[in-house]
Amino acid sequence: MSMFTAVEMAPRDPILGLNEQYAADGNPKKVNLGVGVYYDDNGKLPLLKCVQAAEEDMMKAPSARGYLPIDGIAAYDNAVKGLVFGADSEPVQSGRVATIQAIGGTGGLKVGADFLKKLTPAAKVLISDPSWENHRALFTNAGFTVESYPYYDAAKRGIDFEGMLAALKAAPAGTIVVLHACCHNPTGYDITPAQWDQVIAAVKAGGLTPFLDMAYQGFGHGIQEDGAVIGKFVEAGLTFFVSTSFSKSFSLYGERVGALSVLCESKEEAARVLSQLKIAIRTNYSNPPIHGGAVVAAVLNDPARRAVWEAELAEMRVRIKAMRQKLVDGLKAAGVKQDMGFITSQIGMFSYSGLTKDQMVRLREEFGVYGTDTGRMCVAALNSKNIDYVCESIAKVL
Ligand code: PMP
Q: Which atom of ligand 1 is nearest to the CA of 36?
């Protein structure tokens, strides 16, 4: 009898579980489309040139590792503000954005959730149906009741926008609404700019608290284009939260580089909010690690290096789009009769393929092609070598 006797085994993380199954699969043709990671055309995780160059410079002038300030590297936080809001934007110029360096986008969400729990303890959280798995768990763990608003419409192969809007309009004032700023995970479907206007009007009229999760800025249409939704919220005169992740856009998954920005009404208010965010950080992990933040700051704050990053990010974005087209063409060539053109109207890393759980299981067991049971496939893991095999395999289970 130990104090842990009653501890139950937690269910396996569905995606990490898939990885383990993939690793154990002896099929030489196996393809992993399960995880949300970008691989290059050789199936390799890229080390961006801008990152390598910044690291080489850092190694030439090695420095001791003191503690960072609780909110992280100032030059990093400023670069994040510029990226998210625009360096010359009114919110940044007037100093009413509170930004902290976070441990990945997940850390940004968690610090925001902890701060919100203290500020509005009775609020409910609404996430999209479906959403990134961790949204529900993270806000639930922070003490919130989490519910969802309609998002994906399987029959329509698109978004149930009327349902989404109706749910937002029906939500009580103060409800925290988690919105994917771009490249919706897991579906790949984003709402249009005109639909964003309607969402913003509903959020404003209903007194809701928007929490924008921007884990893929630059993976959709471009850095500015993907960030444009933030500008819309600013224009509407709202205060809101934005979490940022550089895991994908810098291919720095394991360095855990992210941020949380809170747009406040004034500079003075932002200072008070920042002081509270720091308490959330201090009581969770004290202060962030140096390396990833230093690399991202060194790239974003150096115009030449930043240009290299923007080009490398564009290359990833363009390759994903090309793979979407190849998938549509390849499925047709493999004899699939139904129109799979919806795959090219999706954006970002993922595609909700419309395949059923049974079809996904067959893909895995008979062909070694791994996606989630929901039919989600990571398009960013397709390449010129595996695409034909994936198309033929899908054609066989459809
Ligand atoms: N939000 C969404 C929608 C994501 O897809 C991810 C990463 N899969 C994150 C947040 C978390 O990003 P990070 O790995 O930087 O914590």
A: 8
Please tell me if the CB atom of residue 245 comes closer than 6 angstroms to any atom of ligand 1. yes
Cβ of 187 less than 6 Å from ligand 1: no
Q: How far apart are CA 9 and CA 15, in angstroms?
A: 17
pLDDT per residue as tens digits for the range 292-321: 999 999 999 999 999 999 999 999 999 999
Residues 54, 45: Cα–Cα separation, whole Å:
18
Structure pTM? 0.97
Catalytic residue at 213? Answer: yes
Closest ligand 1 atom to 247 CA:
15
**Does residue 244's CB lie within 6 angstroms of at least one atom of ligand 1?**
no
The residue with tokens 């701060």 is: 115
Is the confidence metric ipTM above 0.90 for this complex? yes
Give the DSSP letter string of 185-244: TTT-----HHHHHHHHHHHHHHT-EEEEEES-TTTSS-HHHHHHHHHHHHHTT--EEEEE
Is 309 part of the annotated catalytic residue set? no
Which of the following is catalytic: 81, 117, 132, 309? 132
Is 248 among the catalytic positions? yes
DSSP code of 356?
A: -
pLDDT tens digits along 36-77: 999 999 999 999 999 999 999 999 999 999 999 999 999 999
Place of tokens 């919110």: 91
